Amino acid sequence: MIRFVLRRIVAAIPIGLVVTLGVFALVFAMPGDPLRELAGDKPIPAAVLAAKRAQYHLDDPFIVQYLLSMKDILTGNFGTTFAGADIADQLRLRIPVTLKLTLLANAVQWTLGLIFGIYAGFKRNGWIDRSLLLATLVLLAVPGLVAYFAAQYLFGVELKWFPVSGVLEGFPRSYLLPALVIGVLGFAGLARLLRTSIVETVNADFVKTARAKGLGEQRVLWRHILPNALLPVITFIGLDLAGMFGGAIITESIFNLPGLGQFMFQAIKLKEGGVVVLLSTLAFISFILINLLVDLLYGVLDPRVRNV
Amino acid sequence: MRRLTGVVGAALGLALVLASCGDGKSSGDGSGSGSKSEVIAIAADPLEYINPLNENGSPGIQVAMAMFAPLVTTDPESGKLQNVMADSVTPDKTSQTWTIKLKAGNTFQNGQPLTAKDYVDSWNMTAMGSNAWKNNGFFSKVDGYDALNPPTPDGATPKPTAVKTLSGLKQIDDLTFSVKLKVPFSQFGLTLQYLGLAPLPEEVRKNPDAYKRKPIGNGPFKLAAEWNAGDDIKLAKWDGYKGPQVPQADEITYRFIPNADTAYNEFLAGNVDFVDVPSTKVKSFKTDAPDQWVTSISSGANYLVIPAWDARFKNPKLRHAFSMAIDRKAFADLVGLSEPAKGLVAPDMAGYRDNACKYCEFDAAKAKQLLQEAGGFSGPLNINYNTTSATGQIFAEAIGNMLRQNLGLQVKYTGKQGSEITELADSRKLDGLRFGGWGHDYPSIEDYLTPMFKSNGDANFAGYANPALDAVLAKGDAEPDPDKAIKLYQQAEDIALEDMPLIPLYTKSNAYLHSAKIEPRVSKYVGVSALWATFK
C-alpha cells in the first residue's frame, strides 16, 4: 500500500515538470508585454520599467525564468505579483475561498446527481428518467456565463434571496448561490453516468444470481448493485473535483469571490508566468492527490483492482 | 499621463478619474445611526497598497483623493484653480521657477506638522529611478531628473545614484519650497492638483513598505479600521483636514468588485451607493435605475490613429479624405452617450473651439475628391482593434464600412490584445489604423497637445513630428499670460488638424448610478464625484 502510494507520487514528479513547463511556455508565448498590460496604456518612465523588468527577471531567457519560478515555488519563497501583492498572503486568503466554494458546489452536484441518477436507474423510462434526459440536454447547452449572470440577477438583485457577490456574509451564505448554479449545471452528467451504470449492473449475471439465491431487494441493492454501479462514478467524481478549479475562474470572477480562480484570471490577464505556474502546480498536486485517493477507494470497493 | 489607446471610450481625465470613484452606501447598513455613510463600488482588483506617489491608476488615485489633500485643486463651481495645502503658487517671469508656499497649521493624520521638507523629500524619493515608483515620470520636467535616472542597460537593476535629490527642488523655509524646471512651463501650476504628488510624513518615508496598508495622509478621511489584503477600504472622516470643500460623508467604504457587470448588479440590489455604468449597460442604465443616474460632459477625446511610419498615409489630403468619409454622428450613436468630435481636445477644456476641425464634416463626395487628389490609397486598409474590449470589433467594422462605402477602399480587420497593439505601434511596426483616446491629467488643452502631438510626446501614438508645432507649443509653455498661452496652444491644434496624424472621432460622456441617499456632485469642470456627494 505505502509502496503503491510512493510509486504514484514519484511517477507524478516528471509529469508535473512537463505540465508546469508547458503552462509556463504557454504564458510566455502570449502576446503583449506584462508590465504594459499592468499599466493600462499609460506611458511608463524608462527607469521604472527597467527596475520592474529586472525585479521580475523579464529580460532573462525563457528557461531561466522558468527555473527561477520553480525555485521560488520549491523554496516557498513566492515573492510578490507585478501589482505588488504578496503571493503567500494571497494564497492564505484565497485557498479557503476556493475550497469552500468547490466543496459546497460538489456537495450540491453529488447530492443531486446521486439522487436523480439512482432513481432514474431503477425507474427507467419513468417520468423522472425522461425529465432527467431533457434536463440534461438543456443544462449541458446553457453557457455557464449566461447562467451565472442570470442567476445573480434573478436571485440576488430581483428576489434578494442571496447576496449578489462577494464574501461579506461569510460561509455558507455568500457561497450558496454560485455553488447551487455550479451544482445544478454539473449534476446532469453525473446523474446520466450513474443511471447507465445502474441499468447495466441491474441486468448483470451476479445480480440475477443474488436474486436467485433469495436475497432481499434491499440487500441486493446496497450490497451488490450500488458498490458495483458506483465504481465508474467515483472516477468521474474524482476528475470532476480536480477539474472544478478551471470552472472557478469564471464563477469567482462573476460572483466576486476572492479565490484561486480569480487570482488565476488576473495572472493570465497580466501574463504573470510565475503565478500561473504556481497555481497550476497547486492544481496539479491536488489532481494527483485526488486521483490517488480515488484509486485507493477503488481498491476498497473492488478487491479485484487491489493489487494492480 | 493616461493613454487610452485601443480601449475606445475608456478615456478618463484626471478630473474624471477622481470623479469616477464616487459611490454611495446603500441604505442597508449603518445608516440608522444618523451618520452619513456611503459605499463606493470600484470595478477593479483590490488595491495592494496606498501610496499615492507610487500609484497612477484610477482606483489608487480615487482612494488617494479621499485620504490625501493636493496642493491645489479645481474649484468645481468656477473651474478656477483653488489652493488646498498651498497658500500660494507663484511662477517667476519666465514660468521656469515656481515658488510654492504652504498654509501654516496643516498636519498629517499622525499629528506631525506638514512642512515644505515633506514635499521636497517625498518628491525626491519618487524621482529616484531605482525606487521604481509609478509617478517618477512626473518629475522628468524638473531640473536634475536625469542625474537620478541614468540610462540602465536591459536586464540590469537600476542602482541608487550617488545623487539623492533633484537639483531643481529647493526648500526655502519651513513652509516654502521652489521647483526649477528644465524649460519654461506656464501650465505647471495646474499640474500640482495631481494626487500623485501627495506628501508622505517622515515615518512613512523611512520605510514605505511598513506603511503600505496603514497610510498616513493629510486629507479629509483616514483609515477607519485595520486594512488587510483583499479587504474593502473603510474610511472615516478626519477632523484635522482644514482645506476647502469638506465632504459631507462621515464614513466611506470603497468596495472592489473586479467584474464591472457584477458591480452594477450590486448597485441594483441596493448594496452600493455609487457605481460606474459599464460599457455593456450604456443603452440600458436609464431604465435600469430611473432617476438614479448622472452623466458627466466629457471624459476626453477619442481618435482614429494614423501610423506616421507608413508611407501610404503620408499625404495630408488622404487623411482629410478619411476624416470626411466618416459619418461621426452615426458613429457616436453607435458608441452611445457620445458626441461627434469637432477638434482635438475635450469640449470641457478652456480654449476648446467648436469649429476647430475643418475636415470633420461628413461629406462623401468631397472625401472621394480629396482621395483622388491624393492619388488614391494602395492595398487593403487594415484596422486594428482590441480583442479585450467588448466593442472593439464592432467599432472597427463600423469605421471600416464607412471607409469602404464612401471611398471604395478594400478593408480588413485585425484583432489583438491592447498591449500588443501599443507595443507594435511604439516599435513603429503596426500595420494600419487603430483606435486611441486621451484624457487629461490636468485641465489644460496643453495636456492634449503636448503628449500626443509634440515630437516624442508621451502619448504620441501616431509617431508624428512637426518642428513648427513644437515651436508654437514651446512658446505657449513660456507664455505666462493664460489667455495668450491658450491662443498659442490653439495655433498648435490648428497645425495638428491640418496635418491630421489623428482623426478626431467622438467625445464620450461618463455615466454613473447613485442611490436615493446621495446626490453626487456634478461639475462641468471636474465631472462627477461621489466623494463630495450631498446626503439627502
UniProtKB/TrEMBL annotation, chain A:
GO cellular component: plasma membrane
Transmembrane segments: 9-30, 101-120, 132-155, 175-194, 229-255, 275-301
InterPro entries the record matches: BPD_transp_1_N (IPR045621), MetI-like (IPR000515), MetI-like_sf (IPR035906)
Keyword Transmembrane helix: yes
GO terms for biological process, alphabetical: transmembrane transport
Keywords attached to this entry: Cell membrane, Membrane, Transmembrane, Transmembrane helix, Transport
Organism of origin: Kribbella shirazensis
Membrane topology note: Multi-pass membrane protein
Organism classification: Bacteria, Bacillati, Actinomycetota, Actinomycetes, Propionibacteriales
A Pfam match: BPD_transp_1_N
Family assignment from sequence similarity: Belongs to the binding-protein-dependent transport system permease family.
Subcellular location: Cell membrane
Protein name as catalogued: Peptide/nickel transport system permease protein/oligopeptide transport system permease protein
Keyword Membrane on entry: yes
SUPFAM superfamilies documented for this protein: MetI-like (SSF161098)
Domain ABC transmembrane type-1 residues, every copy: 95-294
UniProtKB/TrEMBL annotation, chain B:
GO CC terms of this entry: ATP-binding cassette (ABC) transporter complex; periplasmic space
Domain Solute-binding protein family: start-end pairs: 81-459
GO BP field: peptide transport
InterPro entries: Peptide/Ni-bd, SBP_5, SBP_5_dom
Signal peptide: 1-19
The keyword Transcription regulation is assigned to this record: no
GO terms assigned for molecular function: peptide transmembrane transporter activity
Keywords carried by this UniProt record: Signal
Any matching Pfam family: SBP_bac_5
Record-annotated membrane-spanning stretches: none
Cited CDD domains: PBP2_NikA_DppA_OppA_like
Keyword flag Signal: yes
UniProt xrefs under PANTHER family: ABC TRANSPORTER SUBSTRATE-BINDING PROTEIN, PERIPLASMIC BINDING COMPONENT OF ABC TRANSPORTER
The name this protein goes by in its record: Peptide/nickel transport system substrate-binding protein/oligopeptide transport system substrate-binding protein
